[in-house]
Design a protein that fits this description.
Elements (H helix, E strand, L loop, with lengths): L1 H8 L1 H16 L6 H22 L4 E3 L3 E3 L5 H17 L12
Antiparallel strand pairs: 1-2
């Protein structure tokens, strides 16, 4: 849990680093606009979910999915780690119709 305590302490730096990394990652899709917008939208959505977790705010997944602050800590933990996992998985996305390996 030291990682989460570190992330909470430096959450503004963490969100700035996540936004910068997402921007740099999306540059490889310039010209493939459907992949570009898919990567940006997915990383923004799940990056925001992780930020809300480390900032102890309600976690929003899309327009209606919300996990309140008063939900059990284990549920919030799973939602936060799930959001971070999907955010990180988008760095492996190579575009539609591309080989994964």
């Amino acid at each position: 849990m030291k990682f989460l305590a570190f992330m909470y302490k430096y959450r503004i730096v963490a969100v700035a680093a996540m936004a910068g990394c997402s921007g740099l990652n999306s540059l490889r899709f310039i010209g493939e606009w459907s992949s570009f917008w898919s990567v940006i939208a997915t990383q923004c959505l799940f990056g925001r979910g992780f930020y809300c977790y480390i900032a102890n705010k309600p976690i929003y997944y899309g327009p209606q999915g919300m996990i309140e602050v008063d939900h059990p800590r284990s549920i919030r933990f799973l939602a936060g780690i799930g959001a971070l996992s999907i955010y990180l998985l988008m760095f492996a996305f190579n575009g539609y119709g591309s080989e994964w390996w």
